[in-house]
Amino acid sequence: MAGIKCVVFLVVLIFQWTHARGDTEVSCVYMENCTLPCSYEGADVVIHWHQVSAGNLPVHSFFHNQDQPGNSAQRFKGRASTFKDQISRGNASVLLTGVKVQDEGRYRCYTSIINGNMESFINLKTDASQDVLEYENTIPCSPSNITLSNLIWRFSHSQLILDGTVTNYTVSEKWKQRVKKLSESGSLTLQDISADQEGIYTCEVRDAEETTISLRSVMIHKETTQIHKTSDDFDHVSLPVVADTEVSCIFMERCMLPCSYGGRDVVIHWHQVSAGDITVHSFYHNKDQLERQNQRFRGRTSLFNDQISTGNASLQLTKVEVQDEGRYKCYTSTDRGNQESFINLKIDAPVKKVNIQRTENIITCSSDGIYPKPELTWSTSPSSKNITVQLTEQLLYNISGSLIVSDSETDLDYSCTISTRRNRKRATLFKPDTEVSCIFMETCMLPCSSEGGTAVIIHWFQQSAGNLFVHSFYEGKDQLGLQYQRFRGRTSLFSDQISSGNASLQLTKVEVQDEGRYKCYTSTDRGNQESFINLKIDAPVKKVNIQRAKNIITCSSEGIYPKPELTWSTSPSSKNTTVKLTERLLYNISSSLIVSDSETDLDYSCTISTRRNRKRATLFKPGKHVQDL
To answer: Does the pTM of the predicted model rise above 0.70?
Structure first.
C-alpha cells in the first residue's frame, strides 16, 4: 500500500472541506459516461470512492499504485475507473460508465497521503427520458455470487408480492398488474407504478445452504421514478466516529489504548492529538511504519500484529510517562472506508508511601513521585502548618506538610492523609510509646490497631534488638519465614479480629530477652501506620529467706528481674551483699551481716525490692519466730 501513509489531519480537514466547500453538483445522462471530479495534493495517494446515499457502497479504490476493483460493490464492477495517467498530478476523479438511475445520489471522494487526508462530496443527478423509467423499473435483489434456491419479494415488510424460484414463482393477486418480470438474478421489474407503490421493498433470499438473507430497497415515486438502495447485506459500510473512550494507566507501567475496525487492507495511524497531532505509531504495507514516529515514543509502542487481521488496531504503550497523558486518535482506513476513534488517556502515579516524623515540636508529613497534583490534610487543627508542593523533572509531584505543636500537645495522635484521584494513603504519628509490663514466663499482649479494611499487612519487630522479625501477616495469613528463632512457637495474632483493626500481638512464656522496644507496622488499602510499645519484663520477688548461724545472719532471694535491692532494718557493724546473674538473665541476691554476742536482744529485718514489688523477712530476737512479709 504505497499510498497508505495518511491520516494526520482527518477531523480538521473533514470539517473544513465539507463545511467550507459545499457539495459539487454533477448532472449525467442516463446510460452514458460520467466523470465525478476530485483532486488532491501530495504523493503516495490512497483513493476511496463511496456512494454515501446508498449506504456507503464502495464504488472504486486505488492504492498500491493501481486500481483495486475487487473492493467495488457488484453494481459498479467494470463501470468505475480512475485516470491513472493523471493521478500523480493530483487527479483523483472517477469515470463512471453506463450511468443508471440507481447511480443517482451523493458520493464521497476520500484521499489519503503522507501528510494527511481529505474528503469531498459530489451530488450526482441522472437525466433520463420519460419513457425509459415510466414503464420499466427494476429493483435489484442479490449479487451474482449467490446461487438462488428460493426468494420472496415483500412490500412494506408484510405485503407479499411474489414467492418461489426465479423460474417458477407465484405473484399475489394484488400485484399481478404491477409485476412485469423476475430476472435470473432475482431482480424485480415493475410496471405502471404510482405513488401508491412508494415504500420499502424487501427481497428475502435463500441459497443452496438454506441461508436466508434480507435485502431492502426504497422506491420513491417522482415524475421520473427512482430506486435507491438503502441497505444490502453484501455491501460494505463505512464505520462512524465513536465517542471518546476513557483509559487510565499507571506511571511507568504498560498501557493499552483500544481501537477496532472492519475491512481489509488496513492502514492504521495513531496520533496524540492533544500534543499537536504528533505521530505515535503507523501501520501500512502490512508492517509497522515508524519513520515519522515522534522521538518520545521510540521503542515504547507496538500493535498486536497477530490480531490486526481480525480487526484489532489497539496500541500498546510501555513505560508510560506523564507527557503521554492526553487525547489520542486512532485512524483506520480499509476497503470499506475509514473511521476515527478517540481515547482520553489519563496517567496516574498513585501515592505509594506517606512518611511522618517528629523532630522536637515540628511534625513533618511527606510523599514523593505523585501525579496528578496531590492534596495533604491533617487529622488535627494545629496552631501552625505549612504545605509545599514541588514539580520534578518527570512532571511528578513531591508534597510535604509540617506543623508546629506546643509542648502541651504531647498526648495526641497526628494523622496525615495524602490523596489523588487514584488513591489516598494515611500515616499516623502516635503519642509516646505505650508502656507494657509482663511477668516472666507468663502470657503477654502487645496492643496495636490498624485502619481496618482490605489488603492488611502487619509486621512486628523487636526494634531494640536490631529490628528482629517477631511476627508477620499478609495475604490473609501468618508469614513466619523470617521470624527470629527465639520467637518460634510463642507469637500469635487475634486472627478473627484483624479485619476489624486489631493487630495486637500475643507473646507466651515471656523471657527477659523479650524486653525492649517493639514496632507494630500496619498497612491497608486505607493507609499505613506505625506504633511503638515499650515492653518491660518483671520477675518479682517471690520469697525472702532469712536465717542465723551463730553470729552470722543471712538474707537471700532468687530468680528476680530486674536487678533487686536489699536493705537491712539495722545498721550492723559488718555486712556483705552479693548479686549473681543466672543463665536466664535473672538475679539471685544474698546478704549477710555479722553481729556481736552482745547484740542478742534485737530484731533483724531484710527487705528485697524491685520496680514491681518488694518483700521483707524478719528475724526476731530469741523467743520469737521468723516472719516473712
So the answer is: no
